[in-house]
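Hey team,

Filing this mostly as a record. A colleague (T.K.) asked me to run one chain through the structure pipeline before their review meeting, and I want the input and output archived in the tracker in case anyone asks later how it was produced. No errors, nothing strange. Just documentation.

Input sequence:
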Amino acid sequence: MHVPRIESDLGISVYGSKTKGIGGGIKRSVDDFIVEETLVDGSTAKIDEKPVNTVLSASLNKQRYLLCILVKRNWDMFIAVKNVARQLGLVETQIRFAGIKDAKALTAQHITIDQGLIEDILPLNIKDIELHPLGYIREHLSAYFLLGNNFTINIKEICKSETEIKKSVNAIVGELKELGGIPNYYGHQRFGTKRPITHLVGKAIIEGNFEKAILTYLTKYSDGEHPSSRQARKDLCESQDFTQSLKDFPKQLRFERSILSHLVKNPTDFVGAFMRLPFKLQALFVQAYQSYLFNLFLSERFKMGFSLNKATAGDYVVNVERSGLPMVHIGKLVKSEKLKETNDLIKSGKLRVALPLVGIRQKFSNGIIGEMQKKIFEKENIKPETFRVQEISTISGKGGLRAIGTPLKNFNLNKIFSGPNTSNENQLSLSFMLLRGSYATIFLRELIKPTDPITAGF
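Output structure:
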C-alpha cells in the first residue's frame, strides 16, 4: 500500500492494516482534537470539570511542589509554559510536566510548579490558558508518573457513506488487534507537523556541526507553514544576514528570533545560539533523530515479515506492568532456545517485543534484526558513540528501548454525522486511550491513510 513521501522521509513506510482508509482530515478546528491526560494513580485531567481541591491543606513548607491542571487551547507546550512562568515571575525550569501535548488541540494535563503559591495562580490571565491548583505534593512531575492520554477526535470531510465508514473502521481496528496493536512509530509531531526537521537538526548536532544544525532550524522551510515564515526562511538562506532576518522573522517564531538575537551579537557562536532554546527542546532534537532511526528499524522489521506480537531470536523483549505500561528500562535479548517460551509470554500479554533507541548506553539487537540495524547505521554514516555530544553533554543520546506495538484501549466509534449542509461529506467522532509515548496520529493514519498528511491535518 502506498505511503506518502513525507511519511517515508520520517521512517514511517509501512501500514499495520491492509484495509483501505476512510480518507478525510483532522484538526480542522481546535475542538476536533481533545486530549485529557491520565496519571499512573488514575488521576485524569478533564477539560470541562473544575478540579476538586482535595489536598490544599498541605503546606508549602512540608511539600515543595504545587500540583495544578493546565488546560490550553491551540498553544505549543513550550511556549505555554514560558508564558505561564513569566506571568508568575518564575523561570521555566520551575514548571514540570509529564508529557508534551499537541499544539493544535484542546488539552488538559497535570503540571507541578516548584515553590509555587496558590494565591499567585488564581489571578493568572493568559488567553486560552487555564490553571487550576490542586495542592502541594513532595515530588515534581516527570514522564514516570504518566499512564497515557485519552483522545476525542473528529475526522471530517469523509467522502464515504455511514455504512462504508463503519465497515472500514471496524475492519482496520480488527486488523490492528490481530497484529498485536498499533505500530508504535514515533508520530509526525515528533519531527514537526508542518515542518518536519527536528531529526535533521538532531543529526547535525551529533555530527558536531552546530552551524548546520542552527541554519537547518532557521532556514529549512515547508510549504505547510505560513507564507511569511516561509519567505523569511528563504531570505535568510540566501542572505545569511542575521540582523535583517531578526527584523523579518514573524514575532510568532519566538525560538528562531531568540537564536537570531544571539547571532546578531555573536555571529559565529552557534553553540551559544542553540543554548538559547529551552533545555527540553535542545534534548528533543537528538531524541528526534533516534526516533527517526527507530522508525526505520520498525518499518524494515515489518518488511522482513515479522509481526508486532511475535519475537525472533536476537529481538529485545520487555516486561509489562499491571497498568499495561512496558518496562522499557529493563530488557533482555531473546535466545533461540527460549523462543517458544518467550512467544508464549508475549501472547499472554506479559512481554512485548522492543527495538532499541541506539545510543551511547544502548546496543543493537542481535541476530538478523541487529544486522539490519547496523546496516541502517552504516547508511546514515554514524555509530552508537556518535550520540555523545561533546559541546553539550546533557543532551547526549543515551538511548533505550521502545515497544514496537502499543494497545488501543477504550476505543469507541461515538457517532457519524453529516457535514455542512452544502456538502455530501460525513464526519466521524471517535475516542480511545493510548499509553504514554504513543501517538494518536499513528492510529489515525491507519484509519485515514492520507495521500497528503499535511493537507489532511497531520
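Quick notes for T.K.: Residues 55 and 70 are 17 Å apart (CA to CA). The radius of gyration is 23 Å.
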